[in-house]
Target: B12 binding domain-containing protein
Amino acid sequence: MARGLGRAAVAMDSIAVQGMLADSLASDGVIATWNEVVRPVLTAVAARWQLSGTGVEVEHLLNECVLAAFVRATPLVTHGRNHRPVLLACMPEERHNLPLYPLAAELAQRGVVARQLGAALPVDALAAAVRRTAPAAVVLWAQLPRYADPGVISALPRTRQQVRLFVGGPGWRRGVVTAPAERVEDLADAVAAVEAAVT
Model:
């Protein structure tokens, strides 16, 4: 499936890409599709661009198709298991927000209400969202190490109810994760951590 997806992306065949993603999501689910189909192809396309300097159009097409597929796989949760929402956001200036979409899709399929705050969220906007929603959990994504700023964690407001704070993405792997934040290693780990936080 990953090889076929890669070939379709290189051919700029967005219809075939969308069809393969839909088939994989229907048969194998969100986590397997992300880990075994999407991530290997994204990694290969990015490596090709780094080596040759060509193919950024393939990466953009693939990103748009993947985003659309996971949005379609995200059911609307009107009565969730959690009374307080989960906030999903990128670190300030981090624009790679694609991995938050499979997380939102898998959480929604499990009946967990999550709110996407998108890419490059300023720290004051994140703090305002935490104050306004009193979330059960916050997941902060950093693709690149330069955006994994522990200062953002300490800048978040304290709320009367406990907020579990998780950081994920390659940007955090070598960085310092300060308490009360907890690192999540991959999509399945993030889903399990958030589920535990909201139950």
Observations:
- The radius of gyration is 17 Å.
- Strands lie at 86-90, 114-118, 137-141, 164-168, 181-184.
- The chain has a mean pLDDT of 94.
